[in-house]
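We emphasize that the prediction below concerns an isolated chain of 351 residues; any contacts that depend on oligomerization or on bound cofactors are therefore not represented. The input was used exactly as deposited, without trimming of termini.
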Amino acid sequence: MPYRVIQWATGSIGQIAIKALTENPTFELVGVYVTSPEKAGRDAGELAGISPLGIRATDRVDEITAIEADCVHYAPLHADLDDMCAILESGKNLVTPVGFVYPAAADGEALQRLQAACAKGAVSLHGTGIHPGFSGDLLPLTFARLCRRIDRVIVQEVADLTRHPSAAMMLEGLGFGRSREECLTDPAPIVKTMDRIFAESISLVAAGLGIGLRDITTEYDVAVATKELVVRTGSVPVGSVGGMRWVWTGWYRDEPVVEFRTFWKMGDDLDPDWGYENLKYSLLIEGDPSIRCGFEASTPTDENDPGLDGRIWTAMNGVNVIPAVCDAPPGIRTHLDLPFVRPLGLVAAAR
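Result of the prediction step, given as a token string:
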């Protein structure tokens, strides 16, 4: 029997997930939730840019929680704790790419509510994605198994967002196109949640290495466009923010042990020019022996959209873990709890 899955939200990640869930015989798409009344009632296939599927989207939470399903792939722009708890309490496992990779390191009240919801529904919650969720979590913990000693783990992400389709995320959520002063003194909504999301990921790596962190610090800076940047969602005016850079550092005693460096850009004509290239993830483990590795798309899925592969990776790391989460004991299940995840139904010749 396939795993019955509901897709929550049909933005750039949700559309990729719908396509994957309908192509893979491991899954059966049984429902779709949308966040705007304009999308309600429309066919899920139409919303995903594929052939009609005969599944009508709804914007009512009660209708979604009433559907009989094994799991919800929860991918809104902003997580809503009440909605997450309602999903879990209705007896549906929940996989999400919007944080929650290690809720034990986050807000205590949220952790207690999620734990109680998992217990009531006898289901599991798992946070994943590409970063956090893979390059900053699974990648370093996997390569750490080759070391005799670890001094520091450094993970770097570069994302080219010029062709990202979501204006709500790029302009309103992250604040590209605002002034430097606005971004630094009053960060946009998504920027404000970044510290929590990445602190969880750093804490997960530390827990996987068997240590507890003294502190997690954040450095945040922006770069401004030196000429107008024409992007998929509009344009970034000269002198407004076209690049963002974060450095999160996890400290063990007085030593920086886990460091995440993230750079998101809307173009290359930026000041300062930090010299980053296109979409790429890299890992450096300083120790004995030291290890350096990285990954990027070998052949871009779309030459005109350099960030598309990153969005596919984000969606698929969630979709492919659904069977393991559904089969896990109830509770919050992080990468440290799940067994080796088998990505089922992907081999084209076997479909």
